[in-house]
Amino acid sequence: MDLSLLSDLNKARTGRQAAILITSMEKNAQRLVRKGQDTSKDPLAAELEKRFRSGKSGLVALADGSTVFLTVNVPPPRLVIIGAVHISQALVPMAQISGFDVTVIDPRTAFATEDRFPNSTLTAEWPEDVLKSAPLDAYTAVAAVTHDPKIDDFPLQEALKTDCFYVGALGSRKTHAKRVERFETAGLTAQQIARIDAPIGLDIGAASPAEIAVAVLGSIILALRKGGEASR
Q1: Which residues make beta-bridge pairs with 19?
Q2: Which residues form the XdhC Rossmann domain (predicted)?
Q3: ∠ CA 222-224-225 to the nearest 5 degrees?
Q4: Are 33 and 39 within 8 A, CB to CB?
Q5: Whole-model pTM?
Q6: pLDDT digits (tens, 9 = 90+) for 37-82
Q7: What 3-state class would DSSP assign to 182?
Q8: Cα 1 from Cα 134, distance rounded (Å)
Q9: Buried b vs exposed e over 187-204: b needs ≥16 C-beta within 10 Å?
Q10: Domain boundaries, the chain
Q11: Could you tell me the CA-to-CA distances from 220 to 20, 53, 81, 197 in Å, in that order?
């Protein structure tokens, strides 16, 4: 492998950036493509997007009869839950079983207790303080479930600005309409705001906290594996 490519790949891994190393099996040539890079003219554009979602490496046959091997490097998906509520208690173990690195953030110490969230990463601080040292990225999902804009709004806005693959918020349509007004005032675009999954989760008629957690996790996995457009 070209040492410069190896260095670039290691930097991508360290910085939680997705990248694919493309190796020509016939020509023994290599190149690196990062997620977010303009691939509109790349003959592998569709395949690269598919692999960025699946995270799976493998051989690909090209139209000219040659083959390339795609070595896919994507960071482990993260789920940041804003709010240590009943829905979160059910969502944490489900998400962990599904392979997500889960963090729960809630400054309300009456809710954010180890008794209610054993064996999980729980932070009883304000989201704006936590996210300074653990910034959001494209392989992070954010689910805001406190019903309190003083807690939810900042991480939701940061999630939209940093292009998190999923952004969901609990609340009625009336509540979300008020949220939209606040976010417009804060300078977010209509396109950014439209990415919010609200009311949160798949429309499966969920009623209990556990059922809502299932609906939320379903939306998150759908967005991760099939993209934001499919999730809506």
Answers
A1: 34, 73
A2: 79-220
A3: 70
A4: yes
A5: 0.86
A6: 889 889 899 999 889 988 899 999 988 888 999 999 999 999 999 9
A7: helix
A8: 32
A9: ebeeebbebbbbbbbbee
A10: 3-73, 78-231
A11: 23, 12, 12, 10
